[in-house]
């Protein structure tokens, strides 16, 4: 069965549901989500609830932590300033939980069990040929010694083509509307989907080393129309 990789949904539940439907139509397989389910787009809560509920028959899901999940947990548990999260799309996440559009920020609208689930998400997922992570890994540091902060926040230098040893690195975080960006040693699947409405799924075969053998393009509404549709539903 193939492995599918989905990056940076950022509250676009419409793209999430279309992606899962497309994978189901192909017979399923393993699905690795590289993080950033929340913030900026209109339906973060719906994505979290769906991921927590688990996959449909024929699929196995491996959700990883992104920097936005980490930010959400840190702020909601009083370890970082609310302003930091609000400046990075947190207001949209709170609205998806039913927070009033005006007034003081009330972090209590986020259920504790959601925060617990987000906090437990793993940073890395490895198969035989590839390493899946949200932002990237230091190619000069052993996997067991990688910095969690770097795995969640780093940006590769422009055009950097390396992976991690013999492992091809699959990640998101660094957005390119004209992506995905495919290199010999890594694949960046972040296509700015929350804004453009264009999500690209990478398809990987266990016995084929390197990058994706196929790309599946999911097209939804651009950001403004997606927000309007979510508000009316």
TrEMBL record:
Residue ranges of every copy of the Calcineurin-like phosphoesterase domain listed in the record: 1-192
InterPro entries per record: Ap4A_hydrolase, Calcineurin-like_PHP, Metallo-depent_PP-like
One example of a Gene Ontology biological process annotation: RNA decapping
Gene3D superfamilies xref list: 3.60.21.10
Superkingdom classification of source: Bacteria
GO cellular component: cytoplasm
Molecular function in Gene Ontology: bis(5'-nucleosyl)-tetraphosphatase (symmetrical) activity; phosphatase activity
Name of the molecule in the record: Serine/threonine protein phosphatase
Species per Swiss-Prot/TrEMBL record: Methylobacterium durans
